[in-house]
């Protein structure tokens, strides 16, 4: 790709990418799984592919800020397509691959997307089924597979078309990149939402430049870092890590398979990774439930010491010599083995998308694995606040990014103003007006600021419910406590709006409960049968009684039930970022919940 000899400050993501290629061309940019091994791709190699794809889009008549969709799992082609869209001056409309045909059509029609990059036949089938509802969609570009329909071309077809266009217009991509303004639309992300139709969040080039630039300036990530990237790139959390990569110059090992995360960390040996809290909870549960007998005793002793040492250091207190000696011993016997599970090179994890249980964070910290919790919304490009490795407070989401202002409203709502905040909702002026007042983003989250400026999220305003006695209950806080009391549960969901007491629905973690069942003489009973087992119910009841002992009287769980299946994205109970859709769960289990109060 043609390059300028004197880099200037980038005005858009396309220019930022071109400058990164110029600076780091021969360095590794990406690493992908291939035939049982991992293959490296340099910045220069990536740029060559991006340029031909961008030129291909220009040859198809794409104009500034036209929307182009991507419906795919996390993979290298997703990133290359996104960069090509940006370099062609267009804007990416992100579509979760798990989105059903009806919602996929709604997103693409509402955004007026003209082209869609589709991963495979599964995604193509949705588009074909709803073709009559997509009058703006002129072309589908397939990552995998092919089609006889003229409406569909392959990724290689688009690149070949782009190469021919480049031969006639060699500076076309550079010229377009130089014309993109900071305020131009870069990305349209439709909030997956837990209720109602998704809203298109309009994110400008300026927002991504700001987030990437702040991360680079604070020195949080370096060009010698390696991230394991599995997060859905249709989600703002995944996208902000890409803008950070282009700004900082580190490499990303890419594999969107959630069930391969732990295995991949052991092989790739990343220095950092972003994840939702559920991933850390599952890793914690898996490690905890593997400890038996004397090993479990040693494990418990090690973490008691590790947590105490970490707490004293965090609070600036004197650490007694005997604690230091024990901690060093346990580091060799216990903690180093845990770090090795994650490859042994992790500098820190980044947790976002939902609140992280403080007990989980303390457990990882004791093992020498720091989890930096951050905070942002789709409406703020997935960014805004983060803890720093040398300045963090467990239980908080950290300090605001440089240049981000934060305030707490009289109602306790977190509001902030920043260059990362959206331009507004697509075609929804009233909703934009409600969310953005005088430039301040109303988050819908309750929170508080301490004297040092650390922000703590105390709950989701809409997730608070009132019992019939007038008392308020905050489900997320109760559910977070249960996560550490019962490593065999996958989800614990609290309900009770307008009722006279709180109740809960529980799902089991299949791997953990299977191990527990074998240890307690239940053999290899299938998952569904275990959900009905008296022994399992007794174990869960003990955990719930422990939970109740730590709650206010009106918060205690009076009745509960175990579901015969776990929650899934495909089942509609989880968003792609693994947040529980409470309304869906409540509706699907209405008879059970109503039965608690009959």
UniProtKB/TrEMBL annotation:
Residues 19-426 form the AMP-dependent synthetase/ligase domain. InterPro entries: AMP-binding_CS, AMP-dep_synth/lig_dom, ANL_N_sf. SUPFAM superfamilies: Acetyl-CoA synthetase-like. Belongs to the ATP-dependent AMP-binding enzyme family. The keyword Lyase does not apply. This is Acyl-CoA synthetase. It comes from the Bacteria. It comes from Mycobacterium cookii. GO terms for molecular function: long-chain fatty acid-CoA ligase activity. Coiled coil: none annotated. GO terms for cellular component: membrane. Keywords: Fatty acid metabolism, Ligase, Lipid metabolism.
């Amino acid at each position: 790709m043609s390059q300028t000899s004197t880099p200037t400050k980038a005005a858009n993501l396309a220019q930022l990418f071109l400058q990164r290629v110029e600076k780091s061309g021969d360095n590794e940019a990406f690493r992908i799984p291939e035939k049982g091994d991992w293959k490296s791709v340099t910045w220069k190699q990536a740029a060559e592919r991006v340029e031909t794809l961008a030129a291909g889009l220009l040859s198809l008549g794409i104009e500034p800020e036209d929307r182009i969709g991507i419906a795919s799992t996390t993979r290298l082609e997703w990133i290359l397509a996104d960069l090509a869209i940006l370099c062609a001056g267009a804007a990416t409309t992100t579509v979760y691959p798990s989105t059903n045909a009806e919602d996929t059509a709604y997103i693409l029609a509402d955004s007026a997307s003209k082209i869609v990059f589709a991963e495979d036949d599964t995604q193509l089938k949705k588009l074909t089924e709803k073709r009559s509802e997509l009058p703006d969609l002129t072309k589908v570009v397939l990552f995998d597979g092919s089609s006889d329909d003229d409406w569909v071309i392959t990724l290689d077809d688009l690149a070949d078309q782009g190469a021919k266009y480049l031969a006639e217009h060699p500076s076309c991509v550079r010229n377009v990149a130089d014309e993109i303004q900071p305020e131009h639309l870069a990305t349209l992300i439709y909030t997956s939402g837990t209720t109602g139709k998704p809203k298109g969040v309009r994110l400008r080039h300026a927002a991504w430049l700001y987030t990437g630039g702040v991360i680079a300036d604070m020195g949080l990530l370096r060009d010698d870092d390696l991230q394991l990237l599995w997060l859905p790139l249709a989600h703002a959390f995944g996208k902000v890590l890409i803008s950070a990569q282009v700004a900082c110059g580190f490499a990303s090992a890419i594999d969107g398979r959630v069930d391969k995360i732990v295995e991949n960390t052991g092989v790739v040996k990343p220095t950092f990774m972003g994840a939702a809290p559920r991933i850390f909870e599952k890793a914690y549960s898996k490690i905890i439930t593997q400890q038996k007998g004397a090993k479990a005793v040693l494990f418990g002793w090690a973490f008691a010491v590790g947590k105490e040492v970490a707490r004293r250091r965090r609070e600036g207190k004197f650490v007694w010599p005997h604690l230091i000696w024990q901690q060093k011993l346990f580091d060799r016997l216990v903690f180093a083995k845990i770090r090795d599970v994650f490859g042994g090179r992790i500098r820190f994890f980044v947790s976002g998308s939902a609140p992280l249980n403080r007990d989980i964070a303390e457990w990882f910290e004791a093992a020498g694995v720091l989890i930096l919790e951050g905070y942002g919304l789709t409406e703020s490009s997935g960014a805004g606040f983060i803890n720093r490795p040398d300045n963090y407070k467990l239980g908080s989401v950290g300090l605001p990014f440089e240049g981000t202002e934060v305030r707490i409203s009289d109602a306790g709502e977190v509001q902030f103003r920043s260059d990362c905040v959206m331009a507004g909702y697509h075609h929804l002026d009233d909703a934009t007006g409600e969310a953005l007042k005088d430039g301040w983003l109303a988050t819908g989250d309750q929170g508080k600021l301490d004297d040092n400026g650390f922000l703590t999220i105390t709950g989701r305003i809409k997730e608070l419910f009132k019992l019939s006695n007038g008392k308020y209950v905050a489900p997320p806080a109760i559910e977070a406590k249960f996560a550490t009391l019962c490593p065999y549960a996958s989800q614990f969901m609290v309900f009770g709006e307008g009722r006279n007491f709180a109740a809960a629905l529980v799902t089991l973690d299949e791997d953990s409960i299977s191990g527990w069942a074998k240890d307690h003489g239940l053999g290899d009973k299938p998952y569904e049968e275990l959900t009905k087992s008296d022994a399992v119910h007794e174990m869960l009841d003990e955990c719930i009684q422990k939970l109740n002992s730590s709650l206010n009287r009106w918060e205690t769980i009076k009745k509960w039930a175990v579901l015969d299946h776990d929650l899934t994205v495909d089942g509609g109970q989880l968003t792609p970022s693994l947040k529980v859709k409470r309304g869906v769960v409540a509706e699907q289990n209405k008879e059970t919940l109503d039965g608690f109060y009959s």
